[in-house]
Amino acid sequence: MFSNDIKGSRTGGAIMIQVHKDGWKLPIEFAGTLNDNFVTRAINEYNVSGQLDLFIQQTIEILLR
Protein backbone atom coordinates (compact mmCIF):
# COMPACT_ATOMS: atom_id res chain seq x y z
CA MET A 1 0.00 0.00 0.00
CA PHE A 2 1.23 3.52 -0.66
CA SER A 3 1.47 6.20 1.99
CA ASN A 4 1.82 9.92 1.41
CA ASP A 5 3.71 10.24 4.71
CA ILE A 6 7.02 11.51 3.32
CA LYS A 7 9.00 11.29 6.57
CA GLY A 8 10.46 7.93 5.53
CA SER A 9 10.93 8.83 1.88
CA ARG A 10 14.36 9.55 0.41
CA THR A 11 12.78 11.26 -2.60
CA GLY A 12 10.08 13.19 -0.77
CA GLY A 13 7.35 11.21 -2.54
CA ALA A 14 4.96 8.48 -1.50
CA ILE A 15 6.36 5.27 -0.04
CA MET A 16 5.17 1.66 0.04
CA ILE A 17 4.16 0.37 3.45
CA GLN A 18 3.57 -3.16 4.66
CA VAL A 19 -0.06 -4.08 5.19
CA HIS A 20 -0.63 -6.53 8.06
CA LYS A 21 1.00 -9.89 7.39
CA ASP A 22 -0.17 -10.00 3.78
CA GLY A 23 3.07 -8.52 2.51
CA TRP A 24 3.38 -5.62 0.10
CA LYS A 25 0.41 -4.50 -1.95
CA LEU A 26 -0.05 -2.05 -4.76
CA PRO A 27 -3.45 -0.38 -5.10
CA ILE A 28 -5.36 -1.89 -8.03
CA GLU A 29 -5.56 1.48 -9.81
CA PHE A 30 -1.76 1.44 -10.15
CA ALA A 31 -1.26 -2.25 -10.87
CA GLY A 32 -2.26 -2.25 -14.55
CA THR A 33 -1.12 -4.92 -17.00
CA LEU A 34 2.22 -6.27 -18.18
CA ASN A 35 2.52 -3.54 -20.82
CA ASP A 36 0.68 -0.73 -19.02
CA ASN A 37 1.50 -0.37 -15.32
CA PHE A 38 2.92 2.22 -12.95
CA VAL A 39 6.49 1.36 -13.99
CA THR A 40 5.87 1.57 -17.75
CA ARG A 41 3.86 4.77 -17.32
CA ALA A 42 6.65 6.37 -15.26
CA ILE A 43 9.27 5.38 -17.84
CA ASN A 44 7.17 6.86 -20.64
CA GLU A 45 6.17 10.01 -18.74
CA TYR A 46 9.70 10.89 -17.68
CA ASN A 47 11.18 9.83 -21.04
CA VAL A 48 13.96 7.72 -19.54
CA SER A 49 13.74 4.65 -21.78
CA GLY A 50 16.96 5.63 -23.62
CA GLN A 51 18.76 6.11 -20.32
CA LEU A 52 17.52 2.73 -19.10
CA ASP A 53 18.68 1.05 -22.31
CA LEU A 54 22.14 2.57 -21.91
CA PHE A 55 22.32 1.61 -18.22
CA ILE A 56 21.32 -2.00 -18.97
CA GLN A 57 23.82 -2.22 -21.83
CA GLN A 58 26.67 -0.82 -19.71
CA THR A 59 25.80 -3.11 -16.80
CA ILE A 60 25.79 -6.20 -19.01
CA GLU A 61 29.11 -5.19 -20.55
CA ILE A 62 30.66 -4.78 -17.09
CA LEU A 63 29.32 -8.17 -15.97
CA LEU A 64 30.67 -9.91 -19.07
CA ARG A 65 34.24 -8.65 -18.64
Could you characterize the architecture of this molecule?
- The chain has helices spanning 28-31, 38-45, 49-63, and strands at 2-3, 15-16, 18-19, 23-24.
- It folds into two domains: 1-27, no CATH class; 32-65.
- The mean pLDDT is 77.
- It contains three helices and four strands, in the order E-E-E-E-H-H-H.
- It is an alpha+beta fold and 65 residues long.
- Strands 1-2 form a two-stranded antiparallel sheet.
- The longest helix is centred in the C-terminal third of the chain and has 15 residues, at 49-63.
Ordered list of secondary-structure elements with their pairings:
Blueprint: E1 2-3, E2 15-16, E3 18-19, E4 23-24, H1 28-31, H2 38-45, H3 49-63
Antiparallel strand pairs: 1-2, 3-4
